[in-house]
Specification:
Number of strands: 0
Number of helices: 6
Shape: globular
Structural class: mainly alpha
């Protein structure tokens, strides 16, 4: 296996396990709880964060495979969305986790089948081409930087809720 793929697989596994650990002790109502309501903008809560991440995992797999995909910008859990306190706007915690795991599996399959030309390919979403000139730039950002940022938000949310920290 190519060292890049090994590194990405390792990061994917670590992020996935950390995401699950961060919500393991939460009940359904805690998944949408909003601590620190005096902030200018509400904190991203677990249901939104994990729904956001589960939206991007199939996109990462599509990038690796060289496929086109819908722009996630206006997706219900995309970049323009905001966390809602209405529990009914989100799947159950178990369903969200299942979809995260499915997304992880899609990425793993795509990583295992990717050849060198996949990494040099142009990013299929025009909006992202100015940012990343090839798949090898976009995939690590989405898999590692993007997920790590949101998992850090989830860790901070736990602290704001008075919950103990979780080791990654």
């Amino acid at each position: 296996m190519h060292p890049l793929v090994s590194g990405l697989m390792h990061g994917l596994e670590k992020n996935h396990n950390y995401a699950i650990a961060l919500v393991a002790d939460l009940d359904e109502n805690q998944m949408v709880a909003q601590p620190a309501m005096d902030l200018p903008k509400p904190l991203n809560h677990p249901a939104w964060i994990l729904s956001h991440l589960k939206t991007y995992r199939p996109i990462v797999a599509s990038l690796i495979r060289g496929e086109t995909f819908d722009d996630p910008l206006d997706h219900p859990y995309g970049m323009k969305s905001s966390p809602a306190q209405d529990r009914n706007q989100y799947d159950t915690k178990a369903s969200i986790i299942t979809e995260l795991e499915q997304g992880r599996g899609e990425i793993e399959e795509a990583l295992h089948s990717a050849n060198d030309s996949a990494w040099a390919a142009e990013v299929s979403l025009p909006r992202w081409r100015a940012r990343w000139n090839c798949v090898a730039m976009g995939v690590p950002f989405l898999m590692l930087n993007h997920e790590n940022m949101h998992l850090g938000q989830l860790s901070a949310w736990r602290r704001a809720m008075g919950l103990p920290p979780v080791q990654g």
